[in-house]
């Protein structure tokens, strides 16, 4: 089974209120500054947030930088995968 990385792009406060077990919290506002770190993570990467909007923005940005990723939508949906 391939290892996937789950990045939750919500704020730290939202993340602390509940998140996917094993997921990494990198707020959307930090995605650009963490690009090199993200490139070193196991791919594919699944991004999630509260509803899918912020994770959609992060997915578009990361794909433009050659990262194999997808928008998982709400973290609650990703939690059931």
The number of helical segments is: 4
Integer average pLDDT: 94
The tally of beta strands, per DSSP, is 4
Q: Give helix % range.
A: 25-40%
> How far apart are the termini?
14 Å
Oligomer: single chain
CATH level-3 fold name = Oxidized Rhodanese, domain 1
Strand order of the largest sheet: 2-1-3-4
Uncertain runs: none
Name the helix and strand elements from N-terminus to C-terminus, one letter apiece. EHEHEHEH
Quick one: CATH superfamily?
A: Rhodanese-like domain
Written description of the protein model:
There is one protein chain. The chain has 81 residues and is of the alpha/beta class. It has a single domain (5-78), classed as 3-Layer(aba) Sandwich (Oxidized Rhodanese, domain 1). The protein is 32% helix and 21% strand. It is built from four helices and four strands. It has helices at 12-16, 35-39, 53-64, 75-78, and strands at residues 5-8, 24-25, 45-49, 69-74. The chain has a four-stranded parallel sheet. It is globular.
What is the topological layout?
Elements: E1 5-8, H1 12-16, E2 24-25, H2 35-39, E3 45-49, H3 53-64, E4 69-74, H4 75-78
Parallel strand pairs: 1-2, 1-3, 3-4
Summarize the structure.
By secondary structure, the protein is of the alpha/beta class.
């Amino acid at each position: 089974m391939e290892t996937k990385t789950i990045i939750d792009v919500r704020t730290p406060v939202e993340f602390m209120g509940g998140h996917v077990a094993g997921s990494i919290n990198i707020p959307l506002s930090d995605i650009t500054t963490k690009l090199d770190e993200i490139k070193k993570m196991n791919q594919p990467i699944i991004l999630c947030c509260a509803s899918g909007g912020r994770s959609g923005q992060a997915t578009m940005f990361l794909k433009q930088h050659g990262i194999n990723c997808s928008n998982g939508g709400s973290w609650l949906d990703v939690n059931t995968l």
